[in-house]
TrEMBL record:
Its EC number is 6.3.5.3. One of its GO terms (biological process) is 'de novo' IMP biosynthetic process. It is an enzyme of class 6 (ligase). It comes from Botrimarina mediterranea. This is Phosphoribosylformylglycinamidine synthase. The gene is purQ.
Length: 263
């Protein structure tokens, strides 16, 4: 199988593009970083790729709100080609700021006739929060999370709270299996507020998929945990036994799943 080609989109202020491209390469993809202006000049460049990733960072300085400017650029100029991209069976991943961007593009299918079912907004405590969290996955149709049950990953965000509009919107999203990642306590039990839920997200939601399962947006950073030794407690875990320092970090599974989808 030829390595799937992944476009890692960057814009002014993106800062996770190198690591994210490397994560896809480690998983067996051919990843390329591309400035959004190149794509705006020539949307047909998308035809050469099987997956698109909007990585983390501070695109356009988080001006107006995080992801808004890049999200608007994509929504206004690239909606049609990207919808076709997804409907052709290709994959789209948004990590942290990339998720904030995806929410604002409309590509996640989280709108109804009354407007957005959910959005990303400021953490409840109003501060930037950067640390590790525990997550439960309920992959359903989500390609990136196939076979994943639990994850430990870093977060680093200020506007990372998934705020769902109302109970009916939450029912709609949960009944369609769209909330595929939830913050949990360390043993996998339900998070009951801060700190297990780091931002006050409705229903502990940390990641959403679209209706096809081929678009995923998540606030935690899978590209920051590719190797076992990236875990802050890897030496203690190794001493306690059952932790292989040569092994994969939890985040690599998402990139491997993306690659094997094309296998
Ligand atoms: N790590 C990131 O992608 C940061 C996202 C965004 N700039 C925020 O602070 O919410």
């Amino acid at each position: 199988m030829p390595a799937p080609r992944v476009l890692v989109l960057r814009a002014p202020g993106t800062n996770c593009d190198e690591e994210t491209a490397e994560a896809f390469r480690l998983a067996g993809a051919a990843a390329e970083r591309l400035h959004v202006n190149r794509l705006l000049e020539n949307p047909a460049l998308l035809d050469g790729f099987q997956a698109l990733c909007v990585p983390g960072g501070f695109s356009y300085g988080d001006d107006i709100s995080a992801g808004r400017v890049l999200g608007n650029q994509i929504r206004l100029a690239l909606s049609e080609p990207l919808r076709k991209f997804r409907d052709d069976g290709k994959l789209v991943l948004g990590v942290c700021n990339g998720f904030q961007v995806l929410v604002k593009t409309g590509l996640l299918d989280i709108e109804d006739s009354a407007g957005p079912l959910a959005t990303l907004t400021w953490n409840d405590h109003g501060r930037y929060e950067a640390r590790w969290v525990h997550l439960n996955a309920t992959p359903g149709e989500c390609v990136f999370l196939r076979g994943v049950e639990r994850l430990e990953l870093p977060i680093a965000h200020a506007e990372g709270k998934i705020a769902v509009r109302d109970d009916a919107a939450l029912d709609a999203l949960t009944s369609q299996g769209r909330v595929v990642l939830r913050y949990s306590v360390a043993d996998g039990g339900e998070a009951k507020g801060f700190p297990a839920n780091p931002n006050g997200a409705t229903a502990n939601a940390a990641g959403l998929t679209d209706s096809t399962g081929r678009v995923l947006g998540l606030m935690p950073h899978p590209e920051r945990y590719l190797f076992a030794t990236q875990h802050p407690q890897w030496t203690r875990k190794k001493a306690a036994g059952g932790y292989d320092p040569q092994g994969d970090g939890d985040g690599l599974a998402l990139f491997r799943n993306a690659v094997s989808y094309f296998g």
